[in-house]
Write a sequence for this structure.
């Protein structure tokens, strides 16, 4: 006589099988990233996530930061923290959603500097001590003189061009109307009177950054965005962006890029890796180091490089209303903020020191 089938035994066997599958899955997905082989991971197609604990971070300061942002009257729209290449915090506020484009204002300058550096690496932009007048030999500017004749590409990168542009927050942006209304932004800038000897001191000038974008177009034959598509945005997987242009079709060099925070972080990650991306040297290590070195004293942070702000142990791209890409090389750390009110700038710029860096202890 046949024994009746023991369903209890089958249940036990199936349960054991399921447990083995789950344990194997945990072994694959919950391996602490710091113990994993990171050599094959680049965020071209998207960032990977980890818990703060997996990256040896204290989660409490990070959660405290989120809580204080949510309870404050300031308009922080997003915050993203990346440690050792893994996202440990990715929060959105005020109706903003993951993947949504956000104007990055003057963080655009650091992107333009990077494109400029790539074109320089590729031999399309000459030595940085080349005079600006060599790039535009056919333009006979108004207000000529020795100072104007001596402006170099390096002076432009360092915000020390000497133009009396009066187009920054120091002058309530009074000179921006002239730049935007000009038939030709290059001629407008070159016609300006001079305020000081080029290279002698720092003065934040939006028009100077736009000149860098115009020079990219002049030397490469395509817009800054088109050049970036092939040499920067494409390799990094930056596919969803908006970049407005002037009346001549030259992308604005000082503002008007719209990125999502994940793509902002890719710019920081490229620099954190000294210009390398997935086995390709997208921009030279030499340029990255020069661009993020304190080259001239500035009036917000300790110093300024090539369109990057430089502090003690970090450098950053920053923009109006509180757009930031912080890079801390010694900690393998990137912090990104987007915001949407002028008063949020001073609030957000202090959050890393108050909350994120303490999480490293």
């Amino acid at each position: 006589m046949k024994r009746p089938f023991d369903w209890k035994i089958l249940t036990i066997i199936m349960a054991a099988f399921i447990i083995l599958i789950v344990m194997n899955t945990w072994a694959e997905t919950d391996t602490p990233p710091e113990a994993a082989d990171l050599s094959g991971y680049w965020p071209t197609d998207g960032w990977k996530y980890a818990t703060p604990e997996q990256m040896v971070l204290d989660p409490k300061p990070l959660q405290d930061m989120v809580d204080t942002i949510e309870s404050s009257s300031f308009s922080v729209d997003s915050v993203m923290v990346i440690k050792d290449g893994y996202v440990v915090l990715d929060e959105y506020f005020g109706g903003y959603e993951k993947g949504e484009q956000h104007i990055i204002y003057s963080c655009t300058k650091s992107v333009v500097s990077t494109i400029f550096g790539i074109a320089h690496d590729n031999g399309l932009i000459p030595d940085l001590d080349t005079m600006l007048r060599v790039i535009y030999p056919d333009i006979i500017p108004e207000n000529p003189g020795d100072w104007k004749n001596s402006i170099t590409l390096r002076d432009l990168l360092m915000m020390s061009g000497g133009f009396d542009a009066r187009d920054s927050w120091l002058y309530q942006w009074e000179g921006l109307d002239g730049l935007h209304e000009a038939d030709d932004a290059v001629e407008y800038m070159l016609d300006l009177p001079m305020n000081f000897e080029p290279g002698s001191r720092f003065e934040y000038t939006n028009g100077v950054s736009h000149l860098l974008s115009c020079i990219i177009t002049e030397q490469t034959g395509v817009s800054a965005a088109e050049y970036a598509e092939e040499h920067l945005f494409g390799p990094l997987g930056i596919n969803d962006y908006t970049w407005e242009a002037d009346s001549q079709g030259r992308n604005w060099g000082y503002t008007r890029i719209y990125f999502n925070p994940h793509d902002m972080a890719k710019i920081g990650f490229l620099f954190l890796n000294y210009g390398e991306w997935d086995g390709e040297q997208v921009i030279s290590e030499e340029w990255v180091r020069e661009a993020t070195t304190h080259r001239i004293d500035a009036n917000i942070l300790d110093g300024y490089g090539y369109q990057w702000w430089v502090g003690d142990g970090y450098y950053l791209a920053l923009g109006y209303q509180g757009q930031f890409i912080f890079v801390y090389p010694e900690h393998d750390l990137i912090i990104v903020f987007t915001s949407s009110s002028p008063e949020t700038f001073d609030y957000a710029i202090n959050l890393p020191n108050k909350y994120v860096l303490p999480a490293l202890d």
